[in-house]
Amino acid sequence: MSLLRVQGLSVAAGNRPLVHGVSFDLAPGERLGLVGESGSGKSLTAMASVGLLAPGLRAEGSVLLDGQQVIGQPDRALVPLRGAVAAVVFQDPTAALDPLMRLGDQLAAPIRRRARREGRDLSAAALRDEQTAWLDRVAIPDPARILQAWPHQVSGGQRQRVAIAMALACGPRLLIADEPTTALDVSTQAEVLSLLDQLVRDEGLALLFISHDLPVVSRIADRVLVMRQGVVVEEGPATRVFTAPIHDYTQSLVAAARRLQAALDGATPTPQVAP
Ligand SMILES: Nc1ncnc2c1ncn2[C@@H]1O[C@H](COP(=O)(O)OP(=O)(O)OP(=O)(O)O)[C@@H](O)[C@H]1O
């Protein structure tokens, strides 16, 4: 059975359609990338999948998350699914972090929630061990200091690592990562991406990975959906979509990515000047 089955999903703001007729299936352990330019409807598709649309937006169609209908359900019906079935990592880690709470207390919340769900007693010492273990798993050195720190006292990359630890500590089966590295500097981006890749593999999670960057998506995802102006224009295995794109729009994304890579490699051909 699919862990996430989206059928004919549309999202609108009043009369303005923002996402139209999106369908896909995500099996347990599978990795799906959503790619497309800014404003193409990737985030709305992902947020509608967990019932986290902003007020004023209306979703239609069907979204089955672990077999439970999400569309049209009141928030209280969806709370048990969040964290336990699906967790989200956002582009901006401050969205997941409370600026007025120490990082250790923030990380304690999902650890406690999971223990309650699993009927485990959690002593203060066991909680501390789990907090430290999660910081180790996201490769944060000096966990004792970080647990005591406020969000503004650590780097952007460390904040994102803590946000990833909090998402995974809930014990989800699906991780939704919405541009998780876009706000980070280039070398931190690569580290956080390979960390996510490793953690998703270790935990056996399904992944819905959202990015405007097709090469990044094709590295981390098995299958890709390409979105443009709220609709899916191409779908296929990540390597095929990247090496042999069919739709004009996907071809332009691939060409742009190759031009950027060539420029970064210093391999851009020098324009020929007529004699
Ligand atoms: N709350 C809202 N009210 C009205 N329009 C919205 C709202 N949220 C998003 N939109 C619009 O919906 C469209 C799709 O937005 P969405 O955030 O899904 O795009 P995206 O592909 O994820 O792009 P980005 O990478 O820039 O976030 C955009 O035109 C956006 O302006």
From TrEMBL:
Keywords: ATP-binding, Cell membrane, Membrane, Nucleotide-binding, Transport. Gene3D superfamilies: P-loop containing nucleotide triphosphate hydrolases (3.40.50.300). One of its GO terms (cellular component) is plasma membrane. GO terms for molecular function: ATP binding; ATP hydrolysis activity. It is found in: Cell inner membrane. It comes from the Bacteria. Residues 4-254 form the ABC transporter domain. It is a peripheral membrane protein. Its main location: membrane. It holds the Pfam family ABC_tran. Belongs to the ABC transporter superfamily. This is ABC transporter ATP-binding protein. It comes from Paracoccus jeotgali.
